[in-house]
Amino acid sequence: MNKMIVIINGSGGCGKDTVVSIFSKYKNVENVSSIDVIRECARMLGCNSKTEEDRLFLSNLKQLSSDFYNHPVVYMSSKIDNFILSDNDIIFLHIREPEEIKEIVNIYKDFIPTKTMLVVRDSVKHINSNKSDAEVYDFDYDITIHNDHDLKSLELKIKEIINNISI
Questions:
Q1: Burial category of 40 from C-beta neighbours within 10 Å (exposed 0-12, middle 13-18, buried 19 and up)
Q2: Model pTM?
Q3: What is the pLDDT of residues 16-48, one digit of tens each?
Q4: Number of other CB atoms surrounding residue 11 within 10 Å
C-alpha cells in the first residue's frame, strides 16, 4: 500500500490549498479539513464569512465539538478509513490544533506513513485572534514549505518533497 497521510497547516492565506493543488498534478490526492463539518454547522447559525469574529466563533465551536465528542478526530479518522480503500496516494488533512495533530499522528503513524507539513508565507500576517489560528506554529513539523516566491518555485519545492517522501 503506497499511501501517505499529510497533515498540513499554516496561517490563513499562506497557500495550503495551492500546495495541495500542485501535489495533485503528480499524485492522486484527497483534501479534507477538520473544520468542514464545523463550518456547515456555523453556516446554519448564520456564520458565513471569514471575519476575525467568525474565525473566533469557528475556533470556539470546533473546540466545543472536540471537548464533548472528539468530533474533529472522529471525522478525520472516518475520512482516513475511506482514503485507505480509495485509489488516492495522499490524503491532506488540514488541522490547526497541535493536540489534534498529535492525536492523528499517534493513531496512524504505525500503519500509514504520516507526515506533518507547515506552509509559511512571510507576506501573510499570522492570525492570533483565536486559539486555533494562534497555535499554528506550536508544533514541530516534519516538513516546512516557504511559499515566498512564484508558483514555479513552489512547484519545484513540491517535486523535491515528492521525490524524498517515497510515494
A1: exposed
A2: 0.93
A3: 999 999 999 999 999 999 999 999 999 999 888
A4: 21
